[in-house]
Amino acid sequence: MSQLERPFPTSPFIGRVEELAEITSRLNDPECRLLTIAGPGGIGKTRLAAQACMQLADAFPDGVYFIPLQPLNHIDFLTPTLVEALGMCCFTTEDPRIQLFGHLKKKRALLVLDNFEHLMDGASFLSDILMESETVKLLVTSREVLNLQEEWIFLVEGLKVPESLDVEGIEEYSAVRLFDEVARRVQPGFSLAQNLECVVHICQYLQGMPLAVEIAAAWLKTLPCRILAQEIRSDLNLLVSTKRDVPERHRSMRAVFEHSWRQLTEPEKDIFSRLSVFQGSFEYEAAQKVAGADLFSLQAFTDKSLLRVSGSGRYIIHELLRQYLVEKLCDQCGTYNPVRDLHCDYFAEFMLRQERRLKGSEQKSALAEIDAELDNLRHAWSWAVEQEKRDMLGKLIEGLFLYYQMRSLVREGLELFRKAIHRLEGVKDSLLADFYIYTAWFEAIAGWRAPWHPIQGK
Fold first, then answer.
1. 449: pLDDT confidence band, cut at 50, 70 and 90?
2. Of the candidates 235, 255, 275, which is a domain's last residue?
3. Taking residues 216-224, what's their average pLDDT?
4. pLDDT at residue number 91
5. What is the CATH number of the domain that holds 314?
6. Where are the alpha helices (DSSP H) in 206-335?
7. CA dist., res. 15 & res. 17, Å (int)
8. Residue 261 domain flag
9. What was the pLDDT predicted at 1?
């Protein structure tokens, strides 16, 4: 076997400059002998590891070996797979593990073990390799961290996505570049400049997940970019690849999520599906009260790359995965509505507390806390209006009115309150009167009167 065994990708490698620099830096650190590239399916772990192989070839004189583990269905096949990949010949009756350790004893080599997540029961074998072979290093890709003492973890997120259309160099963001590269392959006349707004919206919704971006862009041979941007938000089944050379596990985003779903226990499935009611991000207390989560379950979801923890300590579920989880929650007979009720009740109480703070000396910190929960508050409000939960709306209304007023979000406040009036105007009570008053105030502040005047004649 040649000194360097690695895959040779046939398509351009886009972005990930900082990630590659960090990975190579860690593997050049004598203290780091086991590095796990962890992240959800479709995030680009394998491609990132393959690119790292190419950059690290000179640092390992005894070889860089890229070893795919996806075909293995039991840990018993780990040793034979490594023996074969290293070009060893085991003719004696001695234990193949011992022969493997002996072969690696003095080697300055890098073994890249790709797709380890389904072989977690064999994780301790990696510790044995490191103990017996002092100069070998391991680079592992996995949806789940190994939880070994020797392990260093590198979490992979999506490609860079522009936050808005106003940023400079928007065409250079890696998610946009990937979409454009695939789009021009399937539609030679594709113009990024003419479709930039739609492309950015698609990349934002997909949160830069490379597999999802590639599958979405391939649809341009069938759908205009504008229609694709609309359809992709409502139909997870659209994200299916027809490429013949794509592995089965990456043929669709649903297949990616199904693989991770099958790794969960039944109690974990129940809790994780309930977390789908959160929008944007959420805190531990909310997960505990709404979904029945505890720290151990959240840690398990984080270890499996199903949850991401932000710098501020909030939990985030990828939007595509959340869409999949909503389907799972709806499949549980009689579960969706009660969980939405719990979510609505939790954030109604949250807003009631913030309302008191907005009227006092803690206004600044209250506004910051509402900023963080705004997506969840919008979600709770929509549910309360749709289900005509007047008690919940009563807890939400004044706090949201003050918030929209203080943040100068007049148009959003006006639209939210108008929709509530449309839904609730059949019952004349003090709550409806408050809606009329606050809506009129928003209209007055906006300096214009809309064609429809809810306050008029009331």
1. low
2. 255
3. 93
4. 67
5. 1.10.10.10
6. 210-218, 225-231, 253-262, 266-274, 284-291, 295-303, 319-331
7. 6
8. no
9. 31
Average per-residue pLDDT for the chain? 91
Domain end (from 123, 155, 187): 155
- Residue whose token pair is 């720290």: 295
pTM above 0.90, yes or no: no
Closest CA to 229 of 186, 250, 200, 209: 200
Q: How far is residue 440 from each of residues 290, 413, 415, measured CA to CA in Å?
A: 34, 11, 12
Would you state the pLDDT for residue 4?
46
Task: Give CA–CA dist 50/56, Å, rounded.
Answer: 10
Q: What span, in angstroms and rounded, lies between the C-alpha atoms of 204 and 176?
A: 10
The residues, any chain, with a CB within 8 Å of residue 43's CB and separated by 6 or more, are 156, 157, 158, 209, 210, 211, 305
Range of the domain at 318: 266-332
Q: What is the rounded average pLDDT of the residues 319-338? A: 93
DSSP symbol at 168: T
> Residue 3: what pLDDT?
45
Place of tokens 């990930």: 16
What are 199's two structure tokens?
Answer: 């492309």
pLDDT of 8 reads 59
Beta bridge partners, 458, equal none
Tokens read off for 436: 């009329």
One-letter amino acid at 39 equals G
Say if 115 falls within a structural domain.
yes
DSSP label at residue 119: G
Distance of CA 231 to the CA centre of its chain: 20
Q: From CA 276, how far away is CA 290, in angstroms rounded?
A: 10
CB 141 within 8 Å of CB 46: yes
At 284-311, the pLDDT tens digits run 999 999 999 999 999 999 999 999 999 9
Paired sense of beta strands 34-38 and 137-142, if any: parallel
